[in-house]
């Protein structure tokens, strides 16, 4: 499926341009004869069988433009390239072809975003805010807002993050990321583990971020969250754009195709 060339709407302000983007992973494996892990290790040690390199073409010639104020949902089955595309927009993966151009600094928020598990939630708020460029004074001003938004159980803000459930950790990461205005905010599954109350607050916060700054990209398997939060949806299939447009239309087409 050949992807269309990128076309920019002159009446709107582009903030992310993805132009003919290709992302290729190189995976190394022992290859050759089958056997136990010990046998494979001995073959490598004896240089009897050099590791083979396989290429995985995760994103294939993707092109689109995101405009200031967009909230774009990325949907697709597992392995369709959603998270890879987010990492490429964030500048974490080098293109094998094409390119990504952004007006401002993209910030990637994922469920596995790196906070210090051995430190308390309180210390992680401070470190996270400072890492995003907030001053110590701004961090102190935002602290209570972050704690309230994360809605942790009483006292848990003083506990190490290693004691948090996945939902508590996801809420705190989102609360920290949402404490400042981002040029481009990339959210990978961060809302998937929240309850209905948290999803409502997250939706309101994303709308606020859209009003105050650039664009928001959201990856979530919960299609209801995507439809309620985004003004546009891109459906990825085997690393290519299958459909791009109105959330209700794209989600309906995706649901029909994947339910067969």
UniProtKB/TrEMBL annotation:
GO terms assigned for molecular function: ABC-type transporter activity; ATP binding; ATP hydrolysis activity
Domain of life according to the entry: Bacteria
Family matches, as InterPro entries: AAA+_ATPase, ABC_transporter-like_ATP-bd, ABC_transpr_TagH-like, Bact_Polysacc_Export_ATP-bd, P-loop_NTPase
Keywords: ATP-binding, Nucleotide-binding, Transport
Annotated ranges, domain ABC transporter: 39-260
GO CC field: membrane
SUPFAM superfamilies linked: P-loop containing nucleoside triphosphate hydrolases
Record family assignment: Belongs to the ABC transporter superfamily.
The name this protein goes by in its record: ABC transporter ATP-binding protein
Annotated source species: Actinomadura craniellae
Classification lineage: Bacteria, Bacillati, Actinomycetota, Actinomycetes, Streptosporangiales
């Amino acid at each position: 499926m050949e992807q269309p060339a990128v076309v920019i709407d002159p009446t709107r302000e582009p903030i992310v341009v993805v132009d003919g983007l290709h992302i290729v992973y190189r995976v190394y494996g022992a290859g050759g004869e089958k056997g136990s892990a010990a046998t494979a290790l001995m073959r490598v040690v004896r240089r009897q069988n050099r590791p083979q390199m396989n290429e995985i073409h995760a994103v294939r010639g993707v092109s689109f433009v995101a405009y200031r104020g967009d909230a774009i949902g990325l949907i697709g089955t597992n392995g369709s390239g959603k998270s890879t595309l987010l990492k490429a927009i964030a500048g974490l993966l080098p293109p094998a072809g094409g390119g990504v151009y952004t007006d401002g600094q993209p910030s990637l928020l994922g469920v596995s975003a790196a906070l210090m598990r051995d430190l308390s939630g309180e210390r992680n708020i401070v470190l996270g805010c400072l890492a995003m460029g907030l001053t110590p004074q701004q961090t102190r001003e935002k602290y209570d807002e972050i704690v309230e938004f994360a809605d942790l159980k009483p006292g848990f803000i003083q506990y190490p993050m290693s004691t948090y459930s996945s939902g508590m950790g996801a809420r705190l990461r989102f609360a920290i990321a949402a404490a400042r205005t981002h040029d481009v905010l990339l959210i990978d599954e961060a809302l998937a583990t929240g309850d209905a109350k948290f999803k409502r607050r997250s939706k309101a916060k994303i709308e606020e971020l859209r009003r105050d700054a650039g664009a928001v990209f959201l990856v979530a398997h919960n299609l209801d969250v995507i439809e309620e939060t985004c003004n546009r949806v891109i459906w990825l299939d085997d690393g290519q754009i299958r459909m791009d447009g109105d959330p209700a239309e794209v989600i309906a087409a995706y649901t029909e195709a994947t339910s067969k």
